[in-house]
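Before the break, one more example. Copy the sequence into your notebook; we will annotate it together after we see the structure.
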Amino acid sequence: MIAKNRFVNAGLLLLVAMLFFVFVSDDSEAATHTVDKFGGSDYTNITQAVDNASAGDIIRVASRTYHDAVEVDKKLTIIGGNYGSEMGNLYDCNNGDLVAKYSLDEEDPSEVEDGVWCDELNGDVEGASTAAGVWGNGLNFDGVNDYVEIADDDALDFTTAMSVGAWFKSDGITSDQVILSKWYDSGSNDKSYKFYLINNGANDKLRIRIQVGSSHIQCSTDSNISPDVWNHAIATYDGTNIKIYLNGDLDKTCSGSGTIRTSSSPLIIGNLDGISGSEFDGILDDVSLWNDAITSSDVEKIYWGGDFVRPVVNASGGDYVFKLAAAESQLKFFEAQYSGSSSGDSDGDAGVLITADEVQLHDNQFRYNTFGVRIVSSDDVQLHYTYMHC
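Here is what the structure looks like once it is written out:
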């Protein structure tokens, strides 16, 4: 009888343990919420995501500029851009396929710098001026005679594969508008590739045209391109197919093959070489070229966060950018800007205001704040790689 009771008790204990494991496991399954001000995600601002998340959830935020003051009142992990992602050699010109990358962040420049040190393919600016881009500054082209010229270089001559990409916002597509080209379009066959918007009334498209031998292959988006909104586009060619990605998603695949013709023309951002009438009218940002066809996964990461670009959150003079009021919350890889200037000991302003225990900050940057981080009555707070700019 005693043995039987022990067996029953052991069975009950096992059942309780199994139920406890199920409950704990269910509680530990964190949901992930996504934020992108351009749409296509769960939410368009961070506060919306925080309000709708449950304790223990993860919020991932695309690298854009947000105007928000975010109060975190539950345990959350909020991650900016591509922090923690494996980027491989996507932005490595030495071990990878990146040829040139133009952030276009310079202030009213006469020259733009190639962010890739391998070939240092810097360019001369003709007329284009600084404007707000998606990631920092971009260049504004007037649609008349503005362009950037990068001298011809063997590194810009692709043969069997290539990828080109950029952020763009057109002021109006009233004629074909070139994003970038290595294409002399004045009766010569000195043509290689051009990436451009095509004017087609209410059905404006984005197109890549590649010269192969004496003919060309091309691909145009299925989606229409609207003016006055930011779009991110990448076109790839692998020797068999051309693909165009729009805002992180594959939009169109076209068949086509052949060796890409080399050209002695310069690389032009915002126009063609040797002819007028195709000038870009609007803002361009973060123009990049690779000598291989990058993958769909690469494209998604570039669209989401680029080369480890922090999302910028601007408090517009409010008390804080982030207020972390829940224990064990984590904030990773953001730039906090323009919190207020109040300097009170316990109620002053800050880029990040911490009022809970065991909060962690990882790799955050602070700009245009009187105080970057303010910790009020909180224990065991961890700050990892925190940067404060004047």
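The chain has a mean pLDDT of 92. The chain has three domains: 1-30, 32-81+310-353+376-380, 98-305. Try to locate both features in your own notes.
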